[in-house]
């Protein structure tokens, strides 16, 4: 093999590795009850979620009569209430190297660290509004899927802030009709109207859940991600070596 061929091969391998390592993941860090994961694949295979399951961009988590916590690339955590569903639309990717979690039903508690401008963005998106995180603990509420009641967490559509600040936009755009909601405040969503109020006592009691969030260190995420990428790379190599029929 010539020197030029070796250099080209080295560059190709380097780009392949960089491409793989650019893929960020989410991790299921706590699970209780009936929770399912739906793959991003064309078959949309659904299976029971498991502790330390890795989720990719496009994957969906559905909590039936159960709950779970998910670490978003070790940078933020969300907890799904019963009868809730979220989709991983972006995981530390896109223009701002941020994450986008789409809530399609139910309630999710969000705990994120965005204390500095350079910290990654996190947007919680629904069909009617966007909640942009600015270093905070907050709850996002939508109707439960199939209208199932959840007596443990009965809140109107909206955003309820425990700590920090959340920028709420009612036109599914972070820069449109933005309302800043601070600690001990809430915004109820009525159509395209955002009604800002003092946080209700009921919502305050539900915020105590943040004290029970599972700690998942960023270094643990990096270890899991590295192992996942090694396994993925190995599987790709094995596929290439399979004889063609």
Detailed description of the structure:
The structure is a single chain. The protein has 245 residues and is of the alpha+beta class. 20% of the residues lie in helices and 42% in strands. The protein contains three helices and 16 strands. The protein has helices at 3-21, 201-206, 218-241; strands at residues 26-38, 46-48, 54-55, 60-72, 76-80, 84-93, 98-105, 107-112, 122-125, 130-133, 136-141, 158-163, 165-169, 178-182, 185-190, 193-198. Mean pLDDT is 83; it is low at 1-21.
Key structural traits:
single chain; 16-stranded mixed beta sheet; 3 helices; 16 strands
Compact overview of the structure:
With 245 residues, this protein is of the alpha+beta class. Helix content is 20%, strand content 42%. The protein has a 16-stranded mixed beta sheet that branches.
Structure classification:
alpha+beta
Portion of residues within helices: 10-25%
Number of strands: 16
> How large a portion of the residues is in β-strands, by DSSP E?
35-45%
Q: Over the alpha carbons, how many angstroms does the gyration radius reach?
A: 20 Å
Helix run count: 3
Largest sheet: 16 strands, mixed
């Amino acid at each position: 093999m010539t020197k030029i061929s070796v250099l080209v091969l080295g560059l190709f391998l380097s780009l392949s590795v960089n491409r793989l390592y650019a893929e960020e993941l989410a991790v299921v860090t706590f699970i209780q009850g009936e929770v399912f994961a739906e793959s991003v694949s064309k078959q949309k295979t659904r299976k029971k979620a498991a502790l330390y399951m890795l989720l990719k961009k496009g994957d969906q988590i559905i909590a039936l009569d159960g709950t779970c916590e998910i670490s978003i690339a070790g940078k933020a955590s969300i907890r799904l209430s019963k009868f809730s569903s979220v989709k991983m639309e972006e995981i530390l990717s896109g223009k701002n190297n941020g994450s986008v979690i789409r809530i399609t039903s139910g309630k999710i508690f969000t705990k994120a660290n965005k204390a500095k401008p350079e910290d990654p963005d996190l947007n919680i998106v629904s069909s009617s509004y966007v909640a942009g995180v600015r270093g905070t603990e907050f709850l996002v509420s939508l109707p439960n899927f199939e209208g199932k009641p959840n007596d443990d967490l009965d809140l109107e559509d909206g955003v309820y802030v425990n700590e920090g600040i959340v920028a709420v936009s009612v036109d599914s755009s972070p820069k449109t009709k933005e309302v800043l909601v601070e600690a001990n405040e809430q915004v109820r969503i009525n159509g395209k109207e955002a009604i800002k109020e003092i946080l209700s006592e009921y919502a305050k009691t539900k915020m105590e859940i943040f004290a029970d969030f599972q700690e998942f260190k960023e270094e643990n995420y990096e270890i899991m991600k590295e192992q996942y990428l090694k396994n993925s790379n190995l599987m790709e190599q094995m596929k290439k070596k399979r004889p063609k029929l």
